Amino acid sequence: MCDVKNEQRIVIKFLVKSGEKTAEIFRKLQCVFGNDCLSKSRVYEWASRFASGRESTQDDARLGAPKIVHTRQNVEHLSVLVRTDRRLTVRMMSSELGINKETIRQMLYGDLLMRKLCAKLVPKVLTVEQKELRRSICEDFLERIQSEGNDCMNSIITADESWVYQYNPETRRQSKQWIEEGGERLTKARMSRSQIKTMLICFFDIRGVVHKEFVPQGQTVTGVFDIEDKNAKNSCCTYKTSLNTII
Question: Phi-psi category of 140—alpha, beta or left, where left has phi over 0 and alpha has psi -120 to 50?
């Protein structure tokens, strides 16, 4: 069969160099080789190759299947590779080292005792300076408690801000319903979170929320603005915060 294919490629090469149209070449091959004729797509592919200057009628060399080699040397190579870039996938390691993917997994889990984990999400990633600042503030609070007692906590008011959206889309878990056996699964349109949002600043002490205020339109929390207390006439407080300083 390989000889028949190669014979047809030689014919295609000759006819291409003779100036024949590809459609006519395919028709002639069908007349001569019948059921053994190359498919139309293969005839057009080889005709295009020969028209571009290709001379060889043989198939290109293939790399073959990845090797299945579990040796100490390959384990060391894998160790260096994965420590260079810890986000590499098993497929990428297999392609880089030329080793079967299953063997890569065996070396990762069995020899290197490694596993791939997602990053742990935390509220904030603090710098060394921010950690020192928090430690200093906590030490000051401890000193005040030791000297003044727990009553000093009553005079502390802190604040935090958060985005408030016009609406939040219903989650898949919230949309769950009980359905009888054989009942059809309900469908719902995919929704994204509201693009309309505003910043809410909330002040609270040891007893709970003291005051809350929405940031005026066009204003940022990094600026300074007056917050009027709706419950106390003619009283207001000034709130200033910096996103670069975490206390």
Answer: alpha
Which tokens sit at 74? 């390959």
Tokens of 50: 């020969």
CA distance 54 to 20: 17
d(CA 120, CA 247): 22
What is the enclosing helix (H) or strand (E) of 72? helix 72-84
**Would you say residue 210 lies in a domain?**
yes
Residue range 79-120, pLDDT digits in tens: 999 989 888 899 999 988 888 899 999 999 999 998 888 888
Task: List the domain range (segments joined by +) for residue 28.
Answer: 4-52
pTM, full prediction:
0.39
Q: Which amino acid is at 95?
A: S
Residue 187 lies in a domain: no
Q: Are residues 97 and 145 in the same domain?
A: no
Cα-to-chain-centroid distance, residue 107: 26
